[in-house]
Amino acid sequence: MTTSAESERNGEQPGMHTPAVVSPQAWETAREQLLVKEKAHTRASDALAAERRRMPWMAVETTYTFEGPAGKTSLLDLFEGRHQLIVYRAFFEPGVFGWPDQACRGCSMVADQVAHVAHLNARDTTLAFVSRAPQADIARLKARMGWEMPWYTVTDSFDADFGVAEWHGTNVFYRDGNRVFRTYFINNRGDEQMGNTWNYLDITPLGRQEVWEDSPEGYPQTPTYKWWNWHDSYVADAAPDKKWVEVSEAGEAAFRAEQASRKG
């Protein structure tokens, strides 16, 4: 390994001050020590998600209108019949750097890392992007970039009313019949973590809807892992595949056994 001093003597850029190189045993010990803190971080994140599921809701009293591929549509329509809706405000419109060929670089990076929306849909959740660009431009951009999430055009005060007129952000809504409620909002660095199915579900009022979660009484929950599927194989109201149930239960049992042995 080249040191900083050696690099400077050779007329190269100074090297990085890298950590020590140790034996496999010492490396494993260091990893185990850090894992204690990482597990605590995971548990703290789970506790925050549980608290998030207990946040008060805000009723949405205004009827908002968007333009979609099929014409005018409402905020209620954006749910696509599901109970939960996650709306990311992406900046793609005149005046944005990259227009008209590209959306904002940061918003585009968010779009690039969005997982397949079928997994969210299987948890009664719809993800949608909104911008002020016309639908023709949105369709062109989606085709060029290979993006498949629904993407609508803002036509009224939706962005101003929900804190995303000047900066990107993610709003979460819940539908109870024809009533819509705002349940959560993140922006700035909070949006950095988004794109992963789990992170999206963790900001929704219903969460991942798995039995291990700390959720209010009566919230929908199903056995952990059992609902997972290939993105093209979800079937509404279908029972979990028997073989997958066996595989997932065996894997979970092995995981629990390993955890127990570590504590022992």
Summarize the structure in words:
Among the domains are: 58-202, Glutaredoxin (3-Layer(aba) Sandwich), CATH 3.40.30; 222-252, no CATH class. The chain is globular and about 60 Å long. The mean pLDDT is 93. The two termini are 39 Å apart. 23% of the residues are buried. It has nine helices and eight strands. The chain has 264 residues and is an alpha+beta fold.
Please report the distance between the alpha carbons of the first and last residues: 39 Å
In sequence order, what are the helices and strands, one letter per element?
HHEEEHEHHEHEHEEHH
Task: Name the average pLDDT.
Answer: 93
Helix content: 25-40%
User: What composes the largest sheet?
Assistant: 8 strands, mixed
Class by SSE composition: alpha+beta
